[in-house]
Amino acid sequence: MGKIVRLPFPPSSSHAKNVLDLVHTDLCGPMGVDSIVGARYVMVPVGDHSRYTWVYFLRAISDATKYFKDWLIKVERLTKHKLKIIRSDNGGEYTSNAFEKYLTDLGIDHQTTVPYTSQQNGVAERTNRTIVERTIALMHSERLPTGLWAEVMDTVVYLKNRSPSRALKRSTPFEALTGERPNLSHLRVVGCAAWSLIMKGKRDGKLAPRARLCCFLGYSNTQKAYKLWDPIERTVVISRDVTFDETISPSRLERPATPLSDLKSKLHFDRADKLPSPLNDSIPSTDADVFETVGDVPHAVEAVGAEDPVGAQEAERHETGEEIDRGQQDQPQYRGWEYELDPRYARSPAPTPEPEPEDEGVPERAGHFVTRSGRQWGLISTATNNYEAELDDDLGRPGKDEG
Model's pTM, two decimal places? Predict the structure, then answer.
């Protein structure tokens, strides 16, 4: 009575011999954020024989029966096989009278798990976890809007079906389902820069730009084209005339303005011009959300180095104390790019300032690069001989002599 626990779950060695002999399914959600089409739930059927995954995005749980019917008609025609067994949990979307009657009329067996025992539906549960984790990683690494989770998740499933699976002895689910090897020549890096062609009828004039800068999201399910995100119009673009640059991404080249007041509140300082220097080992560095590293250090220097006119102009404004227009800074900026994103954001280039003399007392460190973006926010301050003493006064701590 007092020591009873759950029995262990032994690994299952059974495997369906044919396509659609057994299909695992589960519903995931709500996701917390509506997609751009209003979806909040995800339905994922997974074939036990092929491990091929389908994904459907639902507005409400009650839509599960409708989408399952559409999926069944489509997959039975594609594979020329009939579904025999479906395995799910005891969720209301799979145990409703309408869903049970539909399966009974077609002669499909419905296997359900024991209540509070999702381990018996492990294939679908692990698939949901894999898809969601990869979606989160892509969205946060490329800083995509959360409303695009459905488009990114669709791309994750697309790539998963074309990747080797350990359950299939290093074969791919696509090959196990169709008998053909997938073509991977069209794959691109998710989140990379993509220039989409603007058709003649939609250009402003003869000398207007012929392309618009977008972010690559994935692949269209109904057309032989790519799916892109336009950050200016905030719309999903379907286009086949696209030029990619997989070495850069719009999110990592964008430099949003950070008010000094925000930095001051994060660092708990009373004066904005007294910030700890990352060059000093005795002072802790700032948090990642305040100072973000953009790729490798050499690439970051190349992207926002001395050749950057926008960064030079803002650095000069910061050093001279000139007021900066916050409304203009909040607009998207893609520095280091030769292509101008939009005429509305065009800025007159500032002359490249002369190199500043090295400050005495600044410790040098091998392999350390000081980018202009770091100087403009004051994160790398000009240390002087009395820097330690002034910092002790601001923090109200005893100096080295007193301690």
Answer: 0.63
